[in-house]
Design goal:
mainly alpha; two-stranded antiparallel sheet; 5 helices
């Protein structure tokens, strides 16, 4: 695991105060199949024709943090403290900025400047006085042999993601 203090912004050249961004989240009920493989949750297609989801006060606090949009995969923001809530919301903006993101150095592979900008905007919009908070990143660099059963691997990934979401700490 790599520690990721929010102060990483200075390493990324994000120096000046940034204006607040909208803290509105897309309604997870509006995410509809087919999903874009490999695309960030923020870039999945939306549709107002999905009626499989009931709206409630509880559903307003659920965040799509992966390509999986079923209930067990959604992050319940009520289970997180404020810094984790804000980072989870900011990470919805996470997208690769290089074609070789799977093998590139992690700090160079994603749009960290946009994530930090969004995080600052969310904190400002909620009048949250950011203090020191430590986050960890786990980078998976799997190498699959050609004989891998990708269907079985996909099914296992779905189950593992539900379990990780249920047990807490998984923000993206």
């Amino acid at each position: 695991m790599l520690p990721l203090p929010v102060r990483m912004a200075s390493q990324l050249g994000v120096q000046a105060p940034l204006s607040p961004k909208s803290s509105a989240l897309s309604d997870h009920c509006l995410v509809n199949s087919p999903l874009k493989p490999g695309a960030a949750a923020s870039h999945q297609p939306a549709s107002s024709h999905n009626t499989s989801c009931e709206h409630s006060k509880e559903s307003e606090n659920l965040l799509v943090v992966s390509p999986y949009t079923e209930r067990g995969h959604l992050l319940d923001l009520n289970t997180l403290d404020k810094p984790d809530q804000l980072l989870a919301k900011a990470l919805v903006e996470m997208t690769p900025i290089r074609d070789d993101y799977a093998t590139a150095p992690y700090i160079e592979a994603f749009n960290w400047d946009r994530i930090i900008e969004t995080l600052r905007g969310l904190a400002a919009a909620e009048n949250y006085d950011w203090q020191h908070h430590l986050f960890y990143i786990v980078v998976f660099r799997s190498q699959l042999p050609p004989t891998t059963d990708r269907v079985q691997l996909g099914l296992m990934d779905v189950k593992v993601h539900v379990e990780a979401t249920k047990n807490g700490g998984l923000l993206k």
